[in-house]
Fold:
Amino acid sequence: MSSKRRDWALLITLTFAFSFGFAVYGGLFQNYFREAIHGEPQQLGILESLREIPGLLTAVTAGLLVALAETRLCGAALIASAVGIAATGWVASYWPLVGVTVFWSVGMHLWFSLSPAITLSLAEGREGGKHLGRMAGVGAAAGLAALGATRLLKPYVAYHVLFNAAGALIVAAGLLALFIRVHPARQPRQGMVLRREYGLYYVLTFLEGCRRQIFGTFAPFVLIMVYHASIETMLNLAFLNAAASIVVQPLIGRAIDRLGERKVMMAYYAILMAVFAGYAFISNRTVLFGFYMVDNLLFGCSMAITTYVNRIVRPNEMTPTLTMGTTMNHVAAVLVPVTGGILWKTLGNFQIPFFIGIAVLIASLVVSRRLPAHLPASAKA
Structure:
């Protein structure tokens, strides 16, 4: 097996292992929080906000660890996440749970920033969208398998055993990362980067964070609280989304390569405006379930933001640029859910967050028009 094929195999395998382990954690956490910790809704809200704070510090964290190659930093991040996730099942009170959650969140946010850089490095500037889409499909397949396994095992296996198993899979992913030979920085990597020439990337990343948090926070809440969707229904939607994503995400990646970032992003924002308007004005649950799936499936279109910056970034700045993007994104992650929730409660209208979302999408559509109409894969500014 050639070195390049070996590295691709390692990346695919570790992506599957991480995604499987993290999906097990995600599928169990809400129930664990209610049953074992006896947590209240406001405690969950505080925990979720604190969990996102490491995302704000991703650029700083990566900058402090600049001496490590991306694959080594990725391995360390995954192992740190694994320790926190495995420890989750052993804590029995609220604040220790907050502590382990914030701890694994540091590694998780680094991984989400670093994995596209490693993928695009292996792609060597060719068909970046295709390869990012393929990795998203691998993650979706792992999530689908994890959902099935968790539902089968949960009646017979204790929480701490399942959390330990999830942590073990993520440790394995971290160890595999250490064996990938290639890494994006062919010359010394910058610690932190904030350049005006990357301004369009920063703005699109921030707006995408706003959009993602509005829908991810309030759409399921509306389905459950306003339209009384059952837990089983929400799990079925998650299962269907994971199954469809295995096919859809690679297709989105190929569309980005073929059509260019601007066309894909403009279509993405236009469709999502209809989805947000639907949640504001339509009361048919079946239609809203369909809109919920559309939003989740089209989330892969945001890969176009990454492929765009990959075309223009300076050779040694991909990783610090992506980590700065994560920081920009998480400004929205910390502020938007709290603001939307306060407005909903104060004004007594669940439509308010979706109106805000439509305004964000209009701004995103305007900004995305500044993307190049089509830039060849080999082009670099």
Notes: The longest helix spans residues 3-35.
